[in-house]
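We append the chain.
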Amino acid sequence: MKGLEIAEKYYREYGAPMIHEEFPELEGIVAVGLCGSGSECMGYDDELSRDHDFEPSFIIFLPPEEVVDRRLAFRLERAYDKLPDEFMGLKRNKDVSFDTGRHGVVRAADFFLSKVGDPEGDLTLEQWMSVSEHYLLEATNGKIFRDDLGLVTDVRKKLAYFPEDVRLKKLAGALMLAEQASEYNYERLLSRSDTAAAQLAICEYVREVISAIFLLEKKYKPFYKWQFRALVESPRFAPLKEDLESLLTTGNTVGDAVEKRSRIRRINLALIEEIRAQGLSDYDGFHLDSPAYCVNGKIADPSLRNMHIMSGGE
């Protein structure tokens, strides 16, 4: 059973009765679920995941202090601490604190403030451009088990995905940086026999391509260690996984470089095909700079459109 399922089962068997019996006044005004950091919140946990920070637990999200004061919050935290130590063969970490941690009792506003910089999820264009995608994903992943008043759910809806102009700016930047790393820098570095730096250029290319893939999919890009795991879930782009892995794991001999160029072209063509399918460009070549400018030109907000095209990249 996956960690998210275990968390919900633990809540249903022990957490929900505890709140109902000991804190009936809170039952309809708190939200309960599990989201944030941790492979279980992504659904990517396995046996290896259980070696650290893996336990039967959940988060109780509280409304502001004027609704639930500190004294009542502390009592709830103590009651949470007293829930069973073991569940389905897993042991709980009893060092639970009232903060914006992974489990326990948390102010909803503090949780979102820690993830995206605003307690209500009301981000400006500048904030949307600057907040890390994996934090946006942590704010919106996992599952909310109960939220009668929309305390958490309403904010998660606001943060569900980038505004379209922000997506386009980030996509344009990723495409331009990928083109620069592969077509320009990789070739120049190889011509100087600087193979280590050439491989770094390939790493930058792969990094930006992965960003572009998630932007085209309209999904937040996860933390780096889960990006290839998430890539296989994409019907359109999963076939590129082998090419991307090969770019990262092969050398830069003459023969390797020829193969790398072939794989880069195949990856670029797949990206351009999807860009055309989304009506963002009618370019039909294999370079990424032309579609990058086309994508940038689709941005409605003039201030965002006129920012340097690479400002949306990472």
Q: What stands out?
A: Confidence is low (pLDDT under 50) at residues 96-100. The first strand starts at residue 31 and ends at 34. The chain has 14 helices and six strands. Strands lie at 31-34, 59-62, 86-87, 90-91, 104-107, 143-147.
